[in-house]
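Consider the following input, taken from an annotated entry for Cyclopropane-fatty-acyl-phospholipid synthase (Streptomyces griseochromogenes).
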Amino acid sequence: MADAASRLTRVAEQLLGVPLPVRIRAWDGSQAGPPATPVLVIRNRRALRRLLFKPGELGLARAWVAGDLDIEGDLYAALDAMAGLIWERGDDARSLVQAMRDPEVRAAARELLKLAGPPLPPAPPREEVRRRRHLHTRHSDKRAISHHYDVGNDFYEIVLGASMVYSCAYWGPAEEDATLVSAQRDKLELVCRKLGLTPGRRLLDVGCGWGSMAIHAAREHGVGVVGITLSQEQAAYARKRVADEGLTDRVEIRVQDYRDVVDGPFDAISSIGMAEHVGTERYLEYTSALYALLKPGGRLLNHQIARRPQRDEGAYEVDRFIDAYVFPDGELAPIGTTVTQLERAGFEVRDVESIREHYARTLRHWVANLETGWDRAVRLSSPGRARVWRLYMAACALAFERNRIGVNQVLAVRTPESGASGLPLRTRTWHG
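Applying the prediction step yields:
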């Protein structure tokens, strides 16, 4: 197996049809590829078997999570260089089948089989979740939320920092003028202004997380808040924070599905980073439920990640890595689809603000937090789980920067029959 790196580089370039944009270091210590680039470290031959049995993104993800693959150098530069070979290449398995018609490619595949060793499929890492057939029931949603959010509050404190807000911050023009904590505070304040919160009003915070929005709204705007989450760990953490702030008379945190809230109406509803979990089949049910929980004239602020629309929406598939390791059963929709479903439920959509670049910057801060607290994060979770989060957040930062995905705040109103929305004529005055 002498000089495995050179053989791998040659095989990879024959199979992909383009030069490799990164350098390879193989398990035998050999290196090959362009100098002064990030190094893709292939620690063992098992990594190749993972790619052979699951060509494309999922095979790479399994090798990464298991520690069979690593990157030395700038992680963002490596992912950016490889994006065209992975996320932007299309259906990897179908592309490979088509490529195999070429005799040189078939020869390269035979060489790869020799390099990979015994033709036995390695078991997936234990952090992987199998996708279920029955999606977005109360039980399956609770299980999916638990997988993602019940990693441990201490782990999230490392990643998210003191603000404990797990959605994109709202940054000023110059990054050096703000911290992650201040940018998250500005995001929460922006949501409160858009909702027009004033003392005595009642807010429902759907997917309340660790309580940051509920606490900010109650403390800074004097509203009563009901926060709901499906995560037991989040709820326990949020309740303690509420008590520590002396806000138990104004904030109630529940472990509850949005479909089970029956004590409306509310003056306003915030849904920040929650709607991605709802699912395409349930989205109209979600928007209709929130509409029914609002008073006439009440406002909804829906803060949600969006994907780009496909020419053939019927062929759309969820991201395999994120579905298997990060957000089981999570689904992204184009912003146009979200607006349409809100309108179908009866809402009047009054404002849509894209804050895509803000999420990219936020994710880079979270990655830096994780890398700084790496050893403790591994102890609190597992090496594989920490590797999942590092890859997921870094890759998402690049996806936002490259405009592969976006994030939007949609302000919608349950406009009464009189037509009086209650909004100012110049709505963007909430930027203050």
